[in-house]
Amino acid sequence: MKILKWAGPVVLLAAIVIGDRIRTERPAHKYRLTVEVETPEGVKTASSVVSVHPYRGYQPGGKTVSRGDAVMLDLGGGKNLAALMLHDDKGNADFDGANFVAMRAYQAAGRKIAFRDVGSQTGAVPVSGELMPVLASFKDPRDAASVTRLDPQDLSSLGQGIRLRAVSVEAVPNGLWPLDYGGALGEPVTRTIAAKLPWSENEADAARAVQAVGFTDAFEPARAFTRK
């Protein structure tokens, strides 16, 4: 009888704890960033699903964060293109751009939305100009220092006939965190970069790569490649 007496409060407490965890951890929205490149063999495409989490904790000073991986596109013939989780803010490394790229792209497309409205948007919109993430290519994906930065307007360094066709972003179903099973139940966050850039979670190697594309003072540079 004593066990039954405490069963109700224990279940209630568990429900409160789980409910609060869902409240704090569930993303505000998810988006798919897609890169399309024209090559002599045809258009090649790669994408990555990223989740965006506003701070819902109880301590002041929290920040919005993203979870997901950079987009890595195999162009064939040993060539590749990566859209990093990094933006260029007048020569400074901007890691927060990945948190707001979907909202800003929808706004640039003429939709007068706020951050809270991103998850209800439908359809893909272009990512261009200042919204474009830093593009890079790795001569040897196993070597962080082999990276070079790419000009979105000129990919000739990757070979003749290679051209950036489009970068786009699209809001995808949020799901019921943590039950992300795909489709309407929530698009899972992409986790593929570690297999393509095996050093990407190492801060020292990531720093070498980020420095090679022009940023010498980046904090936690591995965030350019993956965010947990």
- Number of domains in the coordinates? 1
| Global morphology | globular
Considering DSSP H and I runs of 4 or more, what fraction of the residues is helical? 10-25%
Averaged pLDDT, please?
89
Determine the strand fraction and express it as a percent band: 25-35%
- Going across the major beta sheet, what is the strand order? 8-11-1-2-3-12
Give the CA-CA distance, first to last residue: 45 Å
- Count the beta strands: 12
Major sheet, described briefly? 6 strands, antiparallel
Structural class: alpha+beta
Order of helices and strands: HEEEEEEEHEEEEHHE
Account of the 3D structure:
With 228 residues, the chain is α+β, with helices and mostly antiparallel strands. The chain has one domain (28-227). Helices cover 22% and strands 29% of the residues. The chain has helices at residues 2-25, 97-108, 193-196, 203-212, and strands spanning 29-39, 42-53, 65-69, 71-76, 79-83, 87-89, 92-94, 124-126, 135-138, 147-149, 163-172, 226-227. The protein has a 6-stranded antiparallel sheet, with helices on one face. Strands 4-5-9-10 form a 4-stranded antiparallel sheet, with no helix packed on it.
Show the helix and strand layout.
Elements: H1 2-25, E1 29-39, E2 42-53, E3 65-69, E4 71-76, E5 79-83, E6 87-89, E7 92-94, H2 97-108, E8 124-126, E9 135-138, E10 147-149, E11 163-172, H3 193-196, H4 203-212, E12 226-227
Antiparallel strand pairs: 1-2, 1-11, 2-3, 3-12, 4-5, 5-9, 6-7, 8-11, 9-10
